[in-house]
Amino acid sequence: MKFGIFDHMDRGAAPLGEQYESRLCLIEAYDRAGFHAYHLAEHHATPLGMAPSPSVFLAAVAQRTQRLRFGPLVYTLSLHHPLRVAEEICMLDHMSGGRLELGIGRGISSYELSAYGVDPAAAQPIYVEALAVILQALTGGTLNFDGAHFRFRDVPIEMAPVQKPHPPLWYGVSKPEGTAWPAQHKVNIVTNTSADRARTITDSYRAAWAAQGNPAATLPLLGMNRHIVVADSDEAALTIARRAYQRWYESFMKLWIKHGARPPNAMYPDNFDDLQRVGIGVAGSPDRVRAVLAEHIEISGVNYLACRFAFGDLAFEEAQRSVALFVDRVMPALAAGRTARQ
């Protein structure tokens, strides 16, 4: 069982420069505590994403950490020139000594795609071609590619990543049928669903993995995401979580509400109490959080928990305390319990 961090970098209450610095201080704490990786979302034209250029922020992460792996979850490939992305991947991998984790996707919001002049109907084929170009470019040599959206002829590639043939790949999955491609290509996955729905996804991935003759011991990371607030008491944690989640939810929904729509495959209710009831968030004392997450892990069959400790208007001190309590009184027991069941 491994533990990571997921971060939307949604707009908080502090000025943006202060938010970046306080987040980097938290990331230093993740590094010291032994979290596996820090995953940063990419969003545009919305307060949900104050790090719309993930590579810029991740370059700072590379310099502020020693062991923590990190990367986008995901690079929205339909919005970017693939050769530029490949070059940034190489730079980040070298700047970190080979600690980059590479999340890839086409982009879930048609409104964000449209803001960049991308036809949402074309996002999937653009993504497929862009990924093919990037993976080819990361092998070095000369790039030749002839697609409907990208064409390269005899382009010299002067950079290659530290990790061969490329950094570990990550992909978001919301349904069991979405596991076939990542299982075939040995890609790590993460899902934002309840534990029972996550179980259908992890079972599907494991079945596809085994069908290819792969040993269970080499299974990639199968993760789920949770909003988490830990405090000295259940009441104190809930007070913080209710307030902070309301700010996060407003940012999450702002662009969709503007267009009179709702995001696809999103289970997020408009308040934290319901978030706990549907099983994708938890707030409480260390004992309560440990018990709830142990149950979620057991039901879901995941081997990776992506924790969301910083969201909404959580103050740095609140998030810092939450992380400290989680690291000291929750994470060790969850890791030991999962190891025993395996």
Walk me through the structure.
With 342 residues, the chain is an alpha/beta fold. The chain has a single domain, classed as Alpha-Beta Barrel (TIM Barrel).
* Fourth CATH level, the homologous superfamily: Luciferase-like domain
- The level 1 CATH classification is Alpha Beta
Could you say which structural class the secondary elements and strand pairing correspond to? alpha/beta
Using only C-alpha atoms, the radius of gyration works out to 20 Å
Identify the notable features of this structure and list them briefly.
342 residues; disordered C terminus; 12 strands; globular
SSE diagram, text form:
Layout: E1 2-7, H1 16-33, E2 37-40, H2 54-64, E3 69-72, E4 75-76, H3 82-95, E5 102-105, H4 110-115, H5 123-137, E6 141-146, E7 151-157, E8 169-172, H6 180-184, E9 188-191, H7 195-211, E10 222-230, H8 234-258, H9 272-278, E11 281-284, H10 286-300, E12 304-308, H11 316-329, H12 331-341
Parallel strand pairs: 1-2, 1-12, 2-3, 4-5, 5-8, 8-9, 9-10, 10-11, 10-12
Antiparallel strand pairs: 6-7
Helix pairs in contact: 1-2, 1-11, 2-3, 3-5, 7-10, 10-12
